[in-house]
Amino acid sequence: MSHKNHARSRPLRLGFVALSDCAPIIMAKELGLYAKHGLAVELHREVGWATIRDKVLYGELDAAHAPAGLVVAANCGLGSVQVECLTGLVLNLNGNAITLSQALWNKGVRDGRTLRREIIHSDEVYTFGVVHTYSSHSLLLREWLRNHRIEPDRDVRIVIVPPAQVHANLKAGHLDGYCVGEPWNSLAVLSNTGWCVATSDEIAPRHPEKVLMVRRDFAERSSHEHLALIAALLEACEFCTRPENRERLMETLAQPEYVSAPIQALRMGMAGTFDYGNGRVEKHSSFHLFAGEDVNAPTPDKAAWVVRNLVKSGVVKDPSLIPMERIADWFRADLFAQAAQLTSALVP
């Protein structure tokens, strides 16, 4: 159900980064769901997560598609000024992969065990890209490396690269691998510059990925708009999860103003199979989870996964920097429940 418009002098400014999992943000516009819920929304494509974070924190964006870890980092002042932020919606689970260069494949690397052997015997220091220090990609890459007895802070170099730039840096030889969301893994496979060694749902099944991030003062001052925004995006998440909508979804995301990637690369991660490269193609119905049982509610267990892995990974070395008693103020399942009452989406 829609509800009345709320007076505002300008449209809501909603930020996103060019990734397959920005799909609910885009489709809510294309399907007229923002308007249905009485909202005027202006989409802003940003280059990466540091820009998203800063523009939310300083009020240049009202809301944004963001890694779940950015909500925790902003509240704790990790890597930025401390600003109270929250999320009332998880946009998706899973959706990432670890890509290694074709050069490593040609040296005999096939998995984590053979990568460790290559690192031990090589004089090179291999460089891996992640898209933000506090995003899931950093945590997943570090966990995968450690699972194969590769110490992230000793045996390799990890650098920050915006999502849409990782493939170009791999192709140029500046990176030997990366962890990123789609379609930037599949673009490496498509161009034969890289191959996927693991997907994020193999490393951490059903991990929380992107959320709708807002400042707390926005959520309180513009509570009706915030709930309407969650409701519109929740309906978009339901649209994105249906297999019969995937072709339209990919065609839309491929457009220059959105992800601006080859539709073949988008299809490789969204069509029910996943092409790892070098001849390995597998069924993969859970690569992107946009809706379904326990997907979209920002529950305490999802918040706990983020905090636990920030500490476990070594990204946050002092656990006392994150007050666990506050996480229910940051991941607001109560706001999600209120917004769900405004939507016609099938919410479990």
UniProtKB/TrEMBL annotation:
MF (Gene Ontology): ATP binding
InterPro entries per the UniProt record, alphabetical: NrtA/CpmA_ABC-bd_dom
Gene3D superfamilies noted in UniProt: Periplasmic binding protein-like II
The UniProt record lists the keyword Cell inner membrane: yes
Keyword Phosphoprotein carried by entry: no
A Pfam family this chain is assigned to: NMT1_2
Keywords from the UniProt entry: ATP-binding, Cell inner membrane, Cell membrane, Membrane, Nucleotide-binding, Transport
Places the protein is found: Endomembrane system
Record-level GO cellular component terms: endomembrane system
PANTHER family xrefs: ALIPHATIC SULFONATES-BINDING PROTEIN-RELATED, BLL4572 PROTEIN
Official protein name in the record: Nitrate ABC transporter, ATP-binding protein NtrC
Lineage of origin: Bacteria, Pseudomonadati, Verrucomicrobiota, Spartobacteria, Chthoniobacterales
